[in-house]
Amino acid sequence: MDVRIKSEDRTLTICLCGDMDHHGARGLMEQLDRLLERELPSKTILDLGELSFMDSSGIAVILRAKRRMEALGGNLVVVNIPKQAARVLETAGLGRYIKLI
Amino acid sequence: MKASNYIVMEFLSRSVNEGFARSAVAAFAAQLDPTLEEIGDIKTAVSEAVTNAIVHAYPDTLGKVVVRARILEGGILEVTVRDWGRGIADVAKAREPLFTTGGAERSGMGFTIMESFMDTLRVTSKEGQGTKVVMRRRIAQRAGR
Q1: How far apart are CA B145 and CA B141, in angstroms?
Q2: Domains of chain A, residue spans
Q3: Which terminus of chain B, N or C, has fewer Cβ atoms within 10 Å?
Q4: Region A2-100: CATH code
Q5: What chain A residue is nearest to B46 in terms of C-alpha separation?
Q6: Which residues 51-70 of B have a C-beta within 8 angstroms of A?
Q7: pLDDT at position B98 over 80
Q8: Domains of chain B in sequence order
Q9: pTM: predicted TM-score of the whole model, two decimal places
Q10: Interface predicted TM-score (ipTM)
Q11: How far apart are the first and last CA of chain B?
């Protein structure tokens, strides 16, 4: 899985490309932790537009990023969610906790 | 139920095989001419079942995982994921949403997703002997094919 970032005015945009599954989840979580600690954003946008697949491992990744952002006093939004990933997030009821666009 | 076609895959419980397993089952299911959404559902359910075997069946070791996919009468895809790992002590509890014994990268939603994305889900397990997950999904016949 590839990660591309853009940082502007304390808004960090993180684009995730490829398959988000258990195999890549731990490395991705560590990478996101490091990014947030380095950039200290007030808002993080998780852009899933180039995600080719996501299973329930993605839920854990998103929830962890949300908790990290809350600890920084900021917020997290998830945008450009592909249909397959949206089905997974809806089934988990994640819309109740996180802003999904 | 008699199968008109089947595949069987055996692999080691390495997480790198998760992507291979779900893609192989999706490619096999393509002969039923599913929609993109149906293929997405099947890939997701297979990914969850195979990940469970890799994470929970063999937490400290590597072991054998077997995935079998069959085409049954009436356009039904059946996927069986079998391991010979430590087994599940309480299957009913394991199937509850948000229940997990996995690490930080698990959400406890695996069985809930398998149940939602497939028509039927059967889980049998014996402690110390392994777990078998059997899922079925009927691929709807569409007009014009």
Answers
A1: 8
A2: 2-100
A3: C
A4: 3.30.750.24
A5: A55
A6: 51, 54-55
A7: no
A8: 3-138 (3.30.565.10)
A9: 0.93
A10: 0.91
A11: 24
